[in-house]
What does this fold into?
Amino acid sequence: MKLITLRDLAIILSILIISVIFLAINFRDNGTYAEISYDGKVVKTVSLSEDSEFSVNDIKFSVKENSVCVVSSPCPDKICVKTGAIKRNGETIICLPEKVSVRIISDDKVSADIIVG
Amino acid sequence: MKKSFIPLIISTVMIFSGCQKNKIYTSDFFAMDTLCSIKSDIDIKETEAVILTCNASLDMYSGELLKFNEIEETDNAYIYDITEKTLSLVSLYGENVDITSGELTSLWGISSGNKTVPSEDEIKNSLSTMGYEKIFLKDGIVSKEKETKLDFGAVAKGYACDLVYKNLSEKNCGYAIVSVGSSSLLFGEKPDKTDFKIEIKNPDGNIPLGMIETKSCFVSTSGGYERFFEADGKTYSHILDTKTGYPVKTDIVSVTVLCYGENGGIKSDFLATDIFIGGTENLSKHLSSDDYKIVVADKNKKLYVSEGIEFTPYENSGYSL
Ligand SMILES: [Zn+2]
It folds into this structure.
């Protein structure tokens, strides 16, 4: 008696291929990103794995050592600048006067559902 | 050995195939003088509307509250409800949180971004407009003295979470995480059935203080480095001591409060401010409370944690129990 028939093999192979596709879907975008939003709508997504500098609505951002911070902003309170650099999944920088927010998105499975304080 | 190989492959494959995520709706928007964010397994348009409607009544710089602050009476249902609920919290926990402090808040320019130190006379003047004896509730009408200005900044974000909780319960929502700035609602049960994980930021901006694991609850915070402002070369807390009229002097740097069930939002918001102002000398009664749980950090890098809360402090945060 054969342990594996050709039909078995075909089934196994096709299921394997399907699962690899799902795997690819679930694990794509692996890495950490900063999503920059204006008035709640995402306007820019930046990888944190490469250092860079950019601006959104006159707010200057800098990506360095896998973290992102606001370098300068025209807002009066400068809370966004004072918040400093963020890098953990779910962390945010908020500039209320300019209606700009930054959120870290990563695939980190053990990270928090919410960051407070 | 070989025979068990096939089911092993198949089950492994099925586990991976099953990884496809359920549809989760998310939304970010500005309301209640802060960033709000919603994440849920049901359509969140209505949840968003709940917060925006609440905002239209309670925002100090627009809408119904702005109008009411210039006159003596209002029949606005939101203003009535939040005032009534705040008064019952005040009767339980005292007057550290004072919603009649609108004049003082504007004077210090808090939340409008305009940070200046007012003169002593100005502060004396605004203190004279304050006090719980100056507001009355009767038959759906809130009345106050004309000069008294209400400011719900210390309770409105938590109150908005309560309204969201009511709405989500009616809609049989299974799971939602709703943040209204410093107050949040962790609703229902996560798709993977595990506890909600709440990470508490480090007030110094480094490694977080630790992680709370909890069932569904409301969580509010007070303190934190971003809630200070500079004026005339000095650093001030943005939370005002409504007895002196000056920014509060406290030895607490971070407060996190967890409350459970209906009306837990406004309660957690109120208590976060109340505990922050009260300082560590008034902590013991809060640490031993059964119906809410707290995690507090003080100036001396010490952590205070309620019994019966699942909190894991992080090493190297600089703070310890
Ligand atoms: Zn800003």
